[in-house]
Design brief:
By secondary structure, the chain is an all-alpha fold. Helix content is 90%, strand content 0%. Helix 1 packs antiparallel against helix 2.
């Protein structure tokens, strides 16, 4: 299953490419924004995973 960040990045690349092909600068900009949104979601997900890992290691250290 594809994560939300990857979906946004793929959608953004397609929009950007379509915008470039048709000369639609607005669509191209939307594509770039979608890609940035996808990268942000990926970064948030990574941070969440690291925080959960740290929480788990702290619990193991307490015992």
């Amino acid at each position: 299953m594809v994560d939300e960040g990857a979906k946004d990045k793929m959608k953004g690349k397609a929009k950007e490419a379509m915008g470039k092909m048709t000369g639609d600068r607005r669509k191209e900009a939307e594509g770039k924004m979608d890609q940035a949104k996808g990268r942000t979601k990926d970064a948030m997900s990574d941070a969440e995973k690291r925080a959960k890992g740290m929480k788990g290691s702290l619990r193991r250290d307490e015992h």
